[in-house]
Write a structure and sequence with these properties.
By secondary structure, the protein is an alpha/beta fold. It has one domain (3-271): Rossmann fold (3-Layer(aba) Sandwich). Helices cover 31% and strands 25% of the residues. It has 6 helices and 9 strands; from the N terminus they run αββββαββαβαβαβα. The chain has helices at 3-16, 90-103, 162-174, 195-203, 214-222, 247-271, and strands at 24-28, 40-46, 64-70, 73-79, 107-116, 126-134, 179-186, 208-210, 226-236. The chain has a 5-stranded mixed beta barrel. Helix 4 (195-203) links the parallel strand 7 and strand 8 (208-210). Helix 1 crosses helix 2 (90-103), helix 2 (90-103) crosses helix 5 and helix 3 crosses helix 6. The radius of gyration is 18 Å and the shape is globular. One of its GO terms (molecular function) is purine-nucleoside phosphorylase activity.
Amino acid sequence: MSSIKYIEEAVAYLQQRGFDKPEVGIILGTGLGKIIENVEIEVEVSYNHIPNFPTATVEFHKGKLIFGTLEGKKVVLMQGRFHVYEGYSLRDVTFPVRVMHLLGINYLLVSNASGAINGNFKKGEIMLIDDHINLQGDSPLAFRGVEKMGERFVDMSAPYNPEMNHKLEQIALKKNIKLHKGVYASVVGPQLETRAEYKYLKIIGADAVGMSTVPEVIVANHLGLSVSAVSILTDECDPDNLQPVNIEEIIAMAGKAEPDMITLFTNLIKQL
């Protein structure tokens, strides 16, 4: 069975359930599910009910696809995303992006929780992703037949839509939200980085590091979607003063910055 057929089966199932021509897709990172409270929900479907869909395994990812209205636009939200560190392939991780595209989205908004590499960035703040470094050692486009779904050699000179990013910066100014801008490095995980790795990430130009987002963004560019992504900075990765990681604190930090992220996303959606 071709992967196009897999995608079409998932889409047909969701359309039957009432997922009707969403304009915007939203992928929610760890600890960042509250934007759903702003959505007039029409349908929600557990991932494990959708044909050919991967299933979420990390306990704080609920694993639902949600369809509804947000700021007057039809949206589809992924509550819970997939990671390479859970044992998924990059094609699994990006399968939902292909499904949302076939459902009809033109725009993709992505959020993640990440560690601040840039010494000027503090935990609890937000970084707008301006560019990225793929350190996952693979590509979600490296498979036979990819050219049937779009251009094989995807241009990545501006993977994050400059116009949407500019709008987000304007919203941040207007709403008095501190919004950094920088480069996101995506690693496999699930272990956190060593001091030497943090030093290396700084040298190669990363401002923040996480374990997601880049595969989805690559595929969104492959499909011609306009993308913006933000990192919620949940910890500070200073190699000279590295503290043992506290996952509870990371989730709490995500929650602290989340209202600002919701303000950014909802106001951007209004303008799309």
